[in-house]
Amino acid sequence: MTRTILQTFLVFGMAILATLSYGSSPRFGYDAIRRGEFTPNSVRGGRSTADGKHYTTLEENRIVRYDYQTGTDSTVLFDGGAVSPAIQVEDYAIGPNEKYLLLTTQITPIYRRSFTAEYWIYDIRQKELKPLSEAGAQQQATFSPDGTRIAFVRDNNLFVTRIESGEEQQLTFDGVRNRIINGVPDWVYEEEFAFARAYEWSPDGRHIAWLRFDESRVKEYEMTRFDGALYPQTYTYKYPKAGEQNSIVELHCIDLHSGEQVKIETGTETDQYIPHLRWTPSGELAYYRLNRKQNRFEVILCRKDGSQKTIYEEQNDRYVELPDRSTVTFLPDGDRLVVRSERDGYMHLYLYSIRKGFLNRITEGEWEVTEMVGFGNDRIYYLSTETSPLRRNLYSIRCDGSQKKQLTEDNGTYRIVPSEGFRYYLSYFSNATTPERVTLHRSDGETVRTLEDNAALRDKLQQLQLPTKQFFTFRTKNGDELNGYLIRPIDFDSTQRYPVLMTQYSGPGSQRVADQWEMEWTEVLAQEGYIVACVDGRGTGFRGEAFKKCTYGQLGRYETEDQIEAARYLSELPYVDASRIGIYGWSYGGFMALNCILRGNDLFRVAIAVAPVTSWRYYDTIYTERYNGSPSENAAGYDNNSPIGMADRLKGKLLIAHGTADDNVHIQNTYEMVARLTAADRPFEMQIYPDQNHSMGSSRHHLIERCIEFIRTHL
Fold first, then answer.
1. Residue 496 structural domain
2. Mean pLDDT of 256-277
3. Residues pairing with 582 in the sheet
4. Residue 652 placed within a domain
5. What percent of the chain has pLDDT over 90?
6. Cα–Cα distance between 697 and 701 in angstroms, integer?
7. Assigned domain for 601 exists
8. What is the pLDDT of residue 26?
9. pLDDT at 73 exceeding the cut of 80
10. What b/e string do you get for 145-157 counting C-beta neighbours within 10 Å, with b at 16 or more?
11. How far apart (Å, rounded) are the C-alpha atoms in residues 398 and 381?
12. Active-site positions?
């Protein structure tokens, strides 16, 4: 699930011959990418103030406030170099009353989204700085709605601190590592439901609701940590693999005025998921409920009288698309809610009422809403693929589905950060030829001013005259039209034949073929006589439910077929050397790279698999069972498409790489693959990175350089 960057070094042997044969020489090496020479400038930490008229940014350890309209009212709210003690701010939040800042420092990662940190409270008016707590590092600190208190988690327990007095109140007392967790998710919830905070303030600040995870029955996974010590240490954590037991999750709520705590009933079934909590604007608690098969999704409202009501329900023959926080948006009137669903074949918006149920469709068509950005001016603002699955544009529309308006015009990909009430929004735009451009707009789309256009970087790129992505489509033998791109070498000559490196991810609902600006390590190869290609096959996202969910129960089968077909399509192009096609991928992409070189062993000369899954039996419950069912019900779907069962088919050159501290895709996957390759007497190369996680951390650059060297030598 990761991307890559690289460094230059001397080119020997075949690399020199390849470069010379195409009459081109590198104009930059990976070291330039590594140094950040092609990293666009941006506007960091852009956040709206409560009045919707100002926004703040994080600039060189300072938090600066600007006026949306004029941009001239620049006020430094905090200067990290002018306070005592001096601190380095990594993130921040503005209190609802804008009296305090909550500053995040000294972040220590735990897993992908979780971390501990030292939080500080800064009084903007008094210019006073004090620690949130001196009793140990904290997690997921947040302001109360009135800005007078801050909640946080420490050592698996939930706390609240009164800002003025510094009084610290402990709300839970049963938190124990690898047993009970309060207020933050367990590993599998964090990874697969994509959140790191499992508590929510009520709108009036009187109540806090939270999830309690009892992971006592979840089996443990052990990782060896070396860290330069004489004797290695064992890191143990709870990791439920496909078909195994999950945590028992409970919903609790506390009245901070009375101290009364209640456990909220979430049904008789304990083998289920509660992925998110929400409070409605009127102060009622809502929660999501998802069955273990993940084909039934409910939004349940807890009424103030203690009763519960299902206000939305969806079922699917295969699975319901992963519900996230934005799946349901409660509108300010306290009754209406906007639901994002693909129940009619494409992801669209629907309007519901708590009292009346379904009201109307808001959007429709053979395209997808990718994000509901916000609500204001009695209009809904959303990003969609209406112009192309490769692009994202911003639209506004009324709740009844009328008066739709496209607010962005350029072809490419937009990311939007709105103000409170959607009076203004920040637009972050790029496409295949344009690095990020940040502009400020009024809610009707009118441009107020440009904040960052990366003019210097654009000039530099123009001088280098780099090849750019050329998008294409082709039709498979099954009749599916697949999207792809090519990056051709500098000084491309159609009479020559070039080697091809295919790069892909291919996982369910993913996208790699997109009209957005990137500078990847593969750009270095494109300067040296290689064609870089990418194709999104069946199972990838933003082209409708049928295209995405056809891979259900057979992870890897159709995806592999499509990558092999793509390779055959490329091999038939007059300027491609069909004997020199390679494939690369990371995580799910690594799983695919292995499958391709094994099933397409007559086609692929080279494969690089980084942190690959080699059997879905080794991966976690939520992800794997969502897309493949349970192992007990679908053993063939697990085993028939696993690389470990095809090791004896290897013919080409293989590099497999993994970090020993990968908490996500365990190195067990690579070790089992290596055991099968060894038993089959198949040669391969392996790169092991001690104490590195799924993204490879500080070893990432070394890995990418190793990948480049491997391609230069064998492709």
1. 14-39+458-714
2. 95
3. 501, 606
4. yes
5. 91
6. 9
7. yes
8. 54
9. no
10. bebbbbbbbbbbb
11. 9
12. 587, 662, 694
* Nearest-10 crossing angle of helices 557-571, 588-599: 60
Q: Which has the closest alpha carbon to 653: 624, 694, 682?
A: 682
437, 67 Cβ separation under 8 angstroms: no
Burial status of residue 575 (CB atoms within 10 A of its CB: 0-12, 13-18, 19 or more) = middle
Give residue 3's pLDDT: 36
Looking at the structure of the chain, the number of domains it has is 1
- Nearest-angstrom CA–CA distance, 458 and 37: 12
Average predicted confidence (pLDDT) for the chain: 94
Q: What is the average per-residue pLDDT within 123-135? A: 95
C-alpha distances in Å from residue 432, one per residue of 159, 274, 435, 515:
47, 39, 8, 5
Q: Are strands 328-330 and 336-341 parallel, antiparallel or unpaired?
A: antiparallel
Q: Say how far apart CA 654 and CA 690 lie, in whole Å.
A: 20
Distance between CA 564 and CA 517 in Å, rounded? 27
544: left (phi over 0), alpha (psi -120 to 50) or beta: left
Q: Name the β-bridge partners of 192.
A: none
Owner of token pair 């699955």: 389
Residue 467: its pLDDT value, please? 81
- What would the two tokens of residue 542 be? 């933003």
Would 624 be classed as within a structural domain?
A: yes
Report the amino acid identity of residue 568: R
* Confidence band of 74 (pLDDT split at 50, 70, 90): confident
Instruction: Give residue 71's pLDDT.
Output: 81
> Binning pLDDT at 50, 70 and 90, where does residue 296 land?
very high
> Is 329 part of a structural domain of the chain?
no
Q: What is the CATH number of the domain that holds 701?
A: 3.40.50.1820
